[in-house]
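Lesson 9: reading folded outputs for more than one chain in a single document. The general rule is that every protein is listed as its sequence immediately followed by its structure tokens, and records are never interleaved. Here is the first one.
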Amino acid sequence: MRKIAEDCTRLEMPFFVIGDTKSPSDFALSGCEFLSVDDQLKSGLQFAAICPTRHYARKNIGYLLAISRGVDYIVETDDDNFPSEEFYVPLPSRMQAHAVSGAGWVNVYRYYTDAMIWPRGLPLNKIQGDLPDLSSMEVDVPIQQGLANDNPDVDAIYRLVLPLPFQFERERRVALADGAWCPFNSQNTIHYRKAFPLLYLPAYCSFRMTDIWRSFVAQRIGWANGWSILFREATVVQERNDHDLMRDFEDEISGYLGNDKIRAALEAVEVQAGEEHIPDAMRACYRALVNGGFVGAEELPLLDAWLADLSASTNGISSAS
């Protein structure tokens, strides 16, 4: 985290760290804006008042604070990543890329290596599926996922039975267009402004699935708006914090059993194109996840609070400009 703070100071980028009840109340780091739980409650955000503590979803508060500062894009990571210079610079939001569409589940990691590896959240029966051919096309990619070397984002099953550290062998950019599903995470991800609503991390689900299920909602809504999800080469090295892998496995069971059902449920949701319709599309998608028993019903008022805070943040920027 110290390196990230130093990099952000040098690059004149705001850097937010969102604390939780386990965080030290006197945490301080030059170049970092730390918000304790008390600070979050004093922020005036509806979301901060009702989001559960001791949950990764409190990261949503950091997104809202960054958005209120008028940033054009948000770069997110975790405290066990060591970024390269490329990490801080998004690729253009519209670009020529290798792309695939309409392929169902795609193990995108296989475009970067011939080794047996798959991203956390990919259904286990799709790991060795056929790898679709790529074609060059112009894509709109307001959400971009960078890979991680040494400790890539893999599930507990991989970590229990296959070797680490791991290095991806190839550098390339792969865009997943309409109908090409692959989970992406919140550990090395960039969102441009028009995709800010899709940053939302659900709280009433497993910690190990919150960013994965966020990614499925983002893909469904993004495709309705003509967007693709861009994967790029590794731009961080992860030195992973200590984890209890069997506890991770237990927390991932809802995904092992449910991710393909979630895909089907989201594909059945009617999503209207247009950025102005994204809030309603998010409500419809999360309602489908609640109705399917994947996410708790408490998620819906929490999502409404997020959307209200997001609207207030963006309107405040407009009024001040």
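And here is the second record, again sequence then tokens.
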Amino acid sequence: MVEEGAYWLAWAQISGIGPVLLRRLQQHFGTLATAWNATKVQLGEVEGLGFQTLEKVVEQRSRLHPEQLFTKHQQENSHFWTPADADYPRLLLETPSPPPILYYRGEVELQENLGQKPMVGIVGTRQPSEYGIRWTRQISTALAKNGFTVVSGMAEGIDTESHIAAMKAGGRTIAVLGTGVDVIYPHKNRDLYKQILTAGLVVSEYPTKTPPDRTHFPRRNRIIAGLSRAILVMEAPLKSGALITATYANEFGRDVYALPGRLDDYPSQGCLKLLSQGASFILKELDELLTMLGAIPQIDAIEASTAPEQLMPTLSPELQTVMDAMASEALPFDFIVQQTGMAAGLVSSALLQLELMGFVSQLPGMRYQKS
């Protein structure tokens, strides 16, 4: 039997099928294996699959063999996750466009993947001022010493400073690359890259040997935002990749913080814009920032219902199984399917019934929680 992960990989090879469409296919059919065997008419029911894309799917699908493709890919890329894997980062899985393949190198910490250890993204300009560098170092150090994992993009400037400070403080850091995980860019960060492999992870949605490409870096910013519970923008001009990360963070429901600067400072213009749009201030009192970040709910282990038994009606076995898998925190649909061991269609039907009964609430991004 071909594993579901092989179908994530196979679908990702078809031109015109990106992360968003993959997510829609998975949600529509329950599994990508089912979608792979669907007819052209059935595929046409999925939003966003137009005539030309359908033609590509039918033509290219006939030439791909998921199991063989997966085996070959494993030989060329030794470490990667697909959304079908239990270790795939939970917070990233909640987003509308999780990478179908997430490659990694370094030391994996499962608490991070499960969303039980808080991760905070720090981004900013490649040409920071002394002010931006000083505060990046202070904040990264404070976060690391208080158990947060610092996530950034290993670019020059703010990214580099955040990674280095977190590791100097004895903490973990994750670098999200716009290249393959074996390609160091910029090359001047080769020593930093080696250090990160011993004190955290390097991750990317691009396979090994992928060189830098200007189109890759804006896309990788969604992964920084998706992995993180909050994004801190230290210094950023108005046209900055850091603002792209902040935009993704807002779309994903993450908190955004910005470091205020002078009105006439070029590197601060993007931060001032974010603050005018509702981002939270990074203020001098770092204890207040740490308190705010610590107050962001974590994904806890699945809990038993805390409602008094006498207030709960007797549920059918299927409904009870799904209810037992729910938690007070929002969980993605496919995680609930995995926990119950039931077919996706049965879980979807049960969730709808539980929602109508007032026991479950649906949130954006196909996430559910106890009401």
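What the second record shows: The mean pLDDT is 89.
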